[in-house]
Amino acid sequence: TELAEARDHETGTHLSRIAGLARCLAEAAGCSPDFCNDIEMFSPMHDIGKVGIPDGILHLPRKLTEAEFAIMKTHPEIGYQILKDKECLETAAEIAYTHHEKWDGTGYPQGLSGENIPLAGRIVSIVDTYDALRSIRPYKMPFSHEESSKWIKESAGKSFDPDLIKIYEKIEHKLEEIFDSQYDPKLAEAI
Fold first, then answer.
1. Which of 50, 82, 110, 158 has the fewest C-beta atoms under 10 angstroms from its C-beta?
2. Among 148, 99, 88, 158, residue whose Cα is nearest residue 123
3. Neighbour-count burial of 189, counting CB atoms closer than 10 A to its CB (0-12 exposed, 13-18 middle, 19+ buried)
């Protein structure tokens, strides 16, 4: 996962933030201790498939074209192929494959909808989006917690599981604390 992280030029703390954010949301949702441990351990592997995306696309300092985005959208399948059939990595494979699915069925790569999207994928989708919105990227400035949360809440029932968003609303201050405690804007500005 650190290899994928390095290739994507994101901060080194992105992995631990995703792990902490996913665990926090899973605990608040009443998931079992085993599930919470698994999502904390395996959520950082969500973008492992980016190792198969060409550098010329991965490092572009602008919004991707439609053709470039079509290539980028292959990373969940690549990640799934890397992780599937590996003993003890079933949850990691599931997360890699489903973290870009959307509640309304407009996501990728499978176009799953609603509860057909595994819970781990639904949770990681929310926290990965939150982290991405809050983080600086070569093509965008970071959003505030308030702006990010507004966008996420407005996406309930479209991108995200509406029941999980109700839980998100109750604990968003905890998610803000996790992000703020592990985000170094000076390091991010070096991207």
1. 158
2. 99
3. exposed
What is the sign of the dihedral through the CA atoms of 89, 94, 96 and 99? Answer: negative
pLDDT confidence of 93, banded at 50, 70, 90? very high
* 47-69 pLDDT tens trace: 999 889 998 898 888 889 999 99
CA distance 79 to 72: 12
Q: What is the mean pLDDT of the chain?
A: 91
**Residue 53: closest CA among 83, 8, 93:** 8
Asked whether the beta carbons of 46 and 151 are under 8 A apart, the reply is: no
- Give this prediction's pTM: 0.92
Query: CA 91 → CA 34, 99, 176, distances in Å?
Result: 11, 12, 25
Query: What is the Cα–Cα distance from 88 to 108, expressed in whole angstroms?
Result: 24
- DSSP assignments along 87-147, one per residue: TT-HHHHHHHHHTT--TTS--SSS---GGGS-HHHHHHHHHHHHHHHHS-BTTBPPPPHHH
| 177, amino acid identity | E
| The total number of residues written for the chain in this structure | 191
Helix (H), strand (E) at residue 17: helix 14-28
